[in-house]
Amino acid sequence: MGLAYLLARAADTIADTDLIGRDQRLWYLNMFRDQFRGDEVQPQAVQSIQAGLLPHQTDSAERVLLERLPDCLALYRKFEQGDRERIRWLMDVLPNGMEMDLTRFPGSSAQDLSALERPEELDRYTYYVAGCVGEFWTRMVCAHRPAMKHWDVDRMSAIGVRFGKGLQLTNIVKDIARDLHNGRCYVPTQWLDEVGLKPADLLRPGSLPMFRPILLRMIRQAVEHLDQGWLYTMALPRFEIRQRLACMWPILLAGETLKRVATAPDLLDPTVNVKAPRSVVYRVMALTTFTGACGYVGTAYWGRLRKQIV
């Protein structure tokens, strides 16, 4: 799981290195994906990725990750076949979201603003960047945790997809102003048309009242996905405490964030960061940890929280 995370971060670093052109980033991203489409080592391709990207890394952690990319790929190839296949699948699906960002949003500023057109595109995007992670997580833990052997893997993977989509929708509504000013409108124009808005209108903080019905629709959709995530969490055996906490924390913190997004008067101001304060983060972590990820306590918290959101 840790290695899959590092490989996903490496792909994300390739896609986000904006000091090189989009076409070049797409080329490197596809070169990276090719490393998982066969069992042969391609050292020249990895060296090409490093040569093209390392000079542009200002973040030390991302630089170290790219430097150690050959070690990550070597470790991946030592895994047993089932784990390799699961990681291979993830590395084939997850970069589709990065590719969508690079192709659907060709600009990088408000002057070059582009938008998704249909709700189906938004749903597909949230699957690529987060929903597929829920599916991967499910299949991986079912393969390795004896307590999970009773799960219907296909059914729970589908619920895991909803879980991931809910978290990603939360990120989208939370970061809407920042994304708009970076040239990306994830709100489908089909929805904006319903209230007489264009993507560029959202650059004006004063358009929030007109936009609010669409915002609340996206928030309700996120909550519905997170409800499925909570069902997923409660289906985990009670003694799988670490797994339960790993699911409880993002759901409860997403709920705390959505509660603030729904009422934020300055949501469309890119200088404002709407999120749960650190004190709330500590409270959520303490409550769920000290009660041993108790389902009754967590469910009561989530139930009260979701009523405050919608």
Describe what you observe in this structure.
The protein has 310 residues and is mainly alpha-helical. The protein has two domains: 1-80, no CATH class; 105-309, Farnesyl Diphosphate Synthase, CATH 1.10.600.10. The chain has 15 helices and two strands. It has helices at residues 2-16, 22-34, 43-53, 60-67, 69-78, 81-93, 95-104, 119-144, 153-174, 176-181, 189-194, 208-235, 241-263, 278-290, 295-309, and strands at 114-115, 184-185. Strands 1-2 form a two-stranded parallel ribbon. The protein is globular. The mean pLDDT is 95. This is Squalene/phytoene synthase family protein.
Main sheet record: 2 strands, parallel
- What's the domain count? 2
The overall pLDDT average reads 95
Residue windows where pLDDT falls under 50 for at least 5 positions: none
Tally the beta strands. Answer: 2
Radius of gyration, rounded? 20 Å
Spatial arrangement of strands, main beta sheet: 1-2
Backbone structural class: mainly alpha
* Beta fraction: under 5%
Which homologous superfamily in CATH is the superfamily of the largest domain? Farnesyl Diphosphate Synthase
By CATH, the architecture of the largest domain is named Orthogonal Bundle
* Overall CATH class of the largest domain: Mainly Alpha
The topology string of helices and strands comes to HHHHHHHEHHHEHHHHH
Give the helix level as a range of percent.
over 70%
- End-to-end separation in angstroms reads 34 Å
| Number of helical stretches of at least 4 residues | 15
